[in-house]
Amino acid sequence: MTRQTTTQPPVPFAELFLPKLVTVLREGYGMRDLRADALAGLTVAIVALPLSMAIAIASGATPAQGLYTAIIGGFLVSALGGSRFQIGGPAGAFIALVASTVQMHGMDGLFLATILSGLILAAIGFLQLGTYIKFIPYPVTVGFTAGIAVIIFASQIKEFLGLTLSVPEPGPLAEKLPVLWDALPTANAVTIALAGATILLINGLKKLRPGWPGMLIAVALTSVVAMVLGLDTATIGSKFGGIPSGLPQPHLPEITLAKLQAVLPSAIAFALLGSIESLLSAVVADGMTGRRHRSNCELVAQGVGNVASGLFGGICVTGTIARTATNVRAGARSPIAGMLHAVFLLLFILVAAPLASYIPLASLAGVLAIVAWNMVEKHAFATLLRASRGDAAVLLITFGLTIFRDLTEAIVVGFALGSVLFIHRMSNTTAVETHAPFVGQDQSDATLPALEGPAASDRGVVVYRISGAFFFGAAASIGSVLDRIADTHRALIVDFGAVPFLDSTAAHTIEGLAHKAARRGVQLYLTGTTHQIREDLFLHGLKPPMVHYANRIEDAVRKLHLDERGTG
């Protein structure tokens, strides 16, 4: 059996940062593609409209700033990025960071921090460090995502219940909850009803009419009800005076050495979280489409988007998983869909901005409550708690630090604990051999290898043999190889005979492979698994008939042929 290597000829530096938009135009782009992208862009804009305003309000900014972010940042991320399907805009993950930055440094400080974070992101991309973001362990991403969801929900309790606070609302959760508790007697039944109705409408439409834009419909209906009945509840108009009918002029915030030093920690936090969030989003898009993004090119685009957003009075920009997935499901063909999503949002503020004044803040609180609930990877959280003591500890510590300390500290400590856990596991293994580097390099589209794996004696069967420790650092490179299943293959065999252990990130990679194989009608066989590895795979749902197990590769091939004769 021959092994597949990842050695590639040197790629020109400029090719690594060539936007996917240029690649698409080189391949040929016609009216059919434009129609598909326009429909996808409109669909995403409908989803992004209420979300962008809600996230900005929760972050301590104005709803208009959320729209500026989605328009300016979203357009540039799609136009310059290394992913065909990435949608950029304000993200719920940044709410706590942005709100604390506004509290400490004011709005000008936020703009400066956003611009600085963009420069840092661009530098990370140009230095080709983006691929190393894949070293963030899976329990850390699940933990801080769940922690952010709790913070988002807590930030909306005041608007959800219509509370009147006697003191300014504190930022930290431990200080916030007592203040909210004391204000409970001031709860507004009308506001609660509007927020509850928004949640019910979104969930009801998701079940009954999943193709409809539930968030926009829910916000529109509750706004009409509040306006027609003259309900006593806070709206965008009463709190912010509405939304301007156009974009502001770009301006540079005041820059002094003292100001730069003051906002630098926030800028670094924005860049760290933005790089993780955007690359995770790009990976999700790759998994849904079979395409490959260029992580360093994507980070440069995120950097440019943040610089421009800060200049136009916007907040932090990043790739957004939910809107990117919506873009893919809506049939997008290219980055033009993301650019058109920004154009449609611009048309909204040019034509229909006055209508936004009637939107109740309670409705947007209901939207963010749904966002927070959807952010929590509930199945993954429960699985990691059962997976191992080490993974559970990393998960819970990251989760706790995110809620009660801050996100940067949570990621740094979680990553450090994950590294210690890895070192401990590595110390218990011997003769670790890897046939592919842990970190794959970005490639130009012209030099991507053919999607073929090592050939078995049966040309319809692909056999991969994993050697060495299968852990979070190796999962990215191994996963990219395993993903290359050709439609002409009827079976894939993955041999674990030389794998001493695997972690939850690796099991998650195999789980994704199993789902992809099932969609393509490819039978998946896992061979050579130890008792412990098989238990870990079972824990992630990798059981027959989704996957088949055999002791050796030869046994798997023999079983495959017997099954085919039986069904033939």
UniProtKB/TrEMBL annotation:
STAS domain: residues covered: 451-560
Pfam families: STAS, Sulfate_transp
Keyword flag Transmembrane helix: yes
Regions crossing the membrane: 38-58, 64-80, 110-129, 136-157, 177-202, 214-231, 262-285, 343-373, 393-423
Localization annotation: Membrane
Main location: membrane
Keyword list, A-Z: Membrane, Transmembrane, Transmembrane helix
Membrane topology note: Multi-pass membrane protein
PROSITE patterns, alphabetized: STAS
Protein name, per record: SulP family inorganic anion transporter
Lineage of the organism: Bacteria, Pseudomonadati, Pseudomonadota, Alphaproteobacteria, Rhodobacterales
